[in-house]
UniProtKB/TrEMBL annotation:
Residues 129-405 form the Exostosin GT47 domain. The lineage of its organism: Eukaryota, Viridiplantae, Streptophyta, Embryophyta, Tracheophyta. Belongs to the glycosyltransferase 47 family. InterPro entries: Exostosin (IPR004263), Exostosin_GT47 (IPR040911). The gene is LOC111439219. One of its GO terms (cellular component) is Golgi membrane. This is Probable glycosyltransferase At5g03795.
């Protein structure tokens, strides 16, 4: 007889990543709330200014002890605010108190630990997932008036939000699909947010109504939703409007797993312990010929629209620097060359928390620097981001050069070789291959197949 999925080993598997995600969340929440983050003087109107009004609920700030186990590193030049000092809690028994290690040693420890939080656990559990995970997709007729948004797409995914289409195409080609919903662990809600957004009958403002009606029909036509209140249902979206898809379906919002690119902790649409981050990846076919051979002579690179106070601050401080290239607007040189020529590539929060820059940076073998508070980094419950990236609090932009130059050649070599190791997890394929983005997303879902509810109806 098969082991029931609520057996203790499964619980542990589910519990660890949840804790990691929660710790990371608390860490960032605490850090940013207790350090001066309002470098924004010139915030005009963008939503990103909300960052500075957010005050975390007090009970969250008081949860002690676990900050040093956070899965996301924040390298601060103003290390006086030691986290241990700040919260006063004791260290976890199994972790070395981070204050007893010099920051260099601590970082080296993280970087050499490997790109996974626990590789053996992951590989074993991945195999199990690959073998037994089953997804049911709600079916739709070819002549459905919204068939274009509901049925699998047959075009080549393109543009900034390609991840949504790639996921759907990969899923339909994969062995995870079952025809009998009785066998399913999860139910996929197949609406395409990009499709609805481009459908004049719906458009951006109509998406929440469309989704409300869609969920109404699914809950009345099929028995599956009601068994769990939708907790074993999920949808996938990359455009940020997808995050508000459930705005008029409040019950669904609190239960359905949202796999979205715009995985910002602080915006109300994203619920960090339930939802999952989807990497935003620009579609690319060929690997660059000089991925490993290129000489990385520039310290750091950024180019992009000045659509947030964080980016404005970056360009204000570093716009004229010789070593950090921080460019406002479009480049005159090829983007790929800049990514190949730089040691560090900056991901700086814009209007949204996510952009394709993290994926770009990894694709071109450049070590990503995340300057974006409240970002639930993709696959953060599987991958050890400390081993292949640098996370800098937005309030530390003035110390950026000091932080990056504080990373030795030896440390950099480890970071960069780890970037090359995680590359395959940030790639889509026209037919999915093991450990690619599709399989990593499936694994995230597998981790969230919830601490199983008894299905009272079948
Ligand atoms: C950090 O500590 C040093 C020495 O104790 C002090 O000079 C410096 O002003 C402190 N920095 C901050 C940001 O508190
Ligand atoms: C995952 O499943 C596919 C299809 O059964 C199989 O070809 C592949 O080898 C499996 N991968 C792993 C790592 O188990
Ligand atoms: C599911 O629950 C809703 C709300 O209680 C109810 O209206 C609906 O008929 C139920 N669906 C099915 C298929 O029984
Ligand atoms: C990488 O290779 C491409 C194609 O050969 C070339 O155009 C480009 O200049 C090279 N870039 C770097 C940074 O070496």
């Amino acid at each position: 007889m098969a082991q029931p999925p609520w057996s203790s080993s499964f619980r542990t598997l589910f519990f660890i990543p949840t804790c990691l995600a929660l710790n990371a969340f608390l860490f960032i929440l605490f850090y940013t709330s207790s350090s001066s983050s309002s470098s924004s003087s010139s915030s005009s109107s963008s939503s990103s200014t909300h960052t500075f009004f957010f005050s975390p609920p007090s009970q969250l700030r008081q949860i002690p002890t676990q900050f040093h186990d956070s899965s996301i590193p924040l390298l601060s030049s103003t290390q006086n605010l030691s986290l241990e000092d700040a919260n006063g809690g004791p260290a976890l028994p199994h972790t070395q108190p981070s204050s007893s290690l010099p920051s260099f040693g601590r970082r080296m420890h993280e970087q050499t630990k490997g790109v996974f939080h626990d590789e053996d656990l992951f590989l074993e559990d991945y195999k199990e997932m690959n073998k037994s995970f089953k997804i049911y997709v709600y079916p739709h007729k070819r002549n459905d008036p919204f068939a274009r948004s509901l049925l699998p797409e047959d075009f080549e995914p393109h543009g900034n939000y390609a991840s949504e289409s790639y996921f759907k195409q990969s899923l339909f080609k994969s062995h995870f699909i079952v025809n009998d919903p009785k066998d399913a662990d999860f139910f996929f809600l197949p609406f395409s947010i990009t499709g609805l957004r481009n459908d004049r009958r719906v458009s951006v403002s109509g998406i929440p109504d469309f989704i409300r009606d869609y969920i109404f029909s699914v809950t009345h036509k099929y028995p599956y939703w009601n068994r769990t209140g939708g907790a074993d249902h999920f949808y996938v979206a990359c455009h940020s409007v997808g995050r508000s898809a459930m705005d008029k379906s409040s019950e669904a919002k609190s239960s359905v797993v949202q796999v979205v690119c715009s995985s910002s902790y602080f915006l109300p649409g994203y619920i960090s312990h339930k939802d999952a981050a989807l990497p935003q990846i620009w579609p690319r076919k060929q690997d660059p010929p000089n991925l490993t051979s290129s000489k990385r002579t520039r310290l750091a690179f950024f180019a992009g629209a000045m659509n947030s106070p964080t980016r404005q601050e970056l360009v204000r401080v570093w716009g004229k620097d010789a070593e950090i290239f921080a460019h406002s607007g479009r480049l005159k040189t090829p983007y790929a060359d800049e990514l190949l020529r730089s040691k560090f590539c900056l991901h700086v929060k814009g209007f949204e928390v996510n952009t394709a820059r993290v994926g770009d940076s990894i694709f071109y073998g450049c070590v990503p620097v995340i300057i974006s508070n409240y970002y639930d980094l993709p696959f953060g419950d599987i991958l050890n981001w400390k081993s292949f990236s640098v996370v800098v609090a937005t309030s530390d932009i003035p110390s950026l050069k000091k932080i990056l130059k504080g990373i030795s050649d030896e440390e950099y070599a480890i970071l960069q070789s780890n970037v090359l190791k995680v590359r395959k997890h940030f790639k889509w394929h026209s037919s999915p291959v093991d450990f690619d983005t599709f399989h990593m997303v499936m694994y995230q879902l597998w981790l969230r197949r919830t601490s199983v509810r008894l299905r009272l109806m079948d």
